[in-house]
Amino acid sequence: MSLKYLLPCECGVRIPVGKAQAGEVVSCVCGRRIEVPTLLRLQSLDTIEVDQPLREVEASWDIRNGLIVVGVAITLFAAAGAVYFFFTRPARPDEQVSRERLNQRVDTMPLARTYEVWEYLRHGLHRKRAINVDYQRAMKAYRIRLGVTLAILAAAGGATLVGGLALARSRRASRGGPEHLTP
Q1: What is the span of the domain harbouring residue 82?
Q2: Are 37 and 67 in the same domain?
Q3: Is residue 177 in some structural domain?
Q4: What pLDDT, on a 0 to 100 scale, did the predictor assign at position 178?
Q5: Portion of the chain with pLDDT greater than 70, in percent
């Protein structure tokens, strides 16, 4: 049993408050915010003895924890996707000439390979090279895969965000203030 003080509101409702709430502001069912008086003034109010129900043990796992796990999973999935897309990017045609070929001594190369290297180097970096159709197709498919993956991740992240906000709003709305007593 604990002792509660009945704080009156202008609407006629009496709100039970404890000593620990002295100096705080409580809300009435009518919407008014009422300041709880100091301990000295609290003692002049009517009192009531309230049975303290045993508090239910909160679940150790709730929807907020689930949303955190989903957020972490989305982040890890995005990181894995970034690594995958980095390593599966199509190689540019000029990257396909191996460095080993370029490092070989020219005098030991067959004439056909020497001509390939010379053609590659003759174009230089400043000249526009001919468009490689296969490379363009591979890059288009790569960009589509990347775009779809990013869209899925954005949708999952947005759904998690909206779910978290809705949960926070519903919890805020369902949180009841202190029990109200009518005279």
Answers
A1: 63-127
A2: no
A3: no
A4: 46
A5: 73
| C-alpha dihedral (27, 32, 35, 40), degrees to nearest 10 | -90
End-to-end Cα separation, the chain, in angstroms: 21
**33 close to 25: Cβ distance less than 8 angstroms:** yes
Number of domains comprising the chain: 2
Residues 115 and 154: their CA atoms lie apart, in Å, by 49
Assigned domain for 68 exists? yes
**Helix crossing, 63-87 with 133-174: angle to 10°?**
170
Shared-domain flag, residues 122 and 74: yes
Instruction: Say yes or no to pLDDT of 55 above 60.
Output: no
Query: Do 12 and 45 reside in the same domain of the chain?
Result: yes
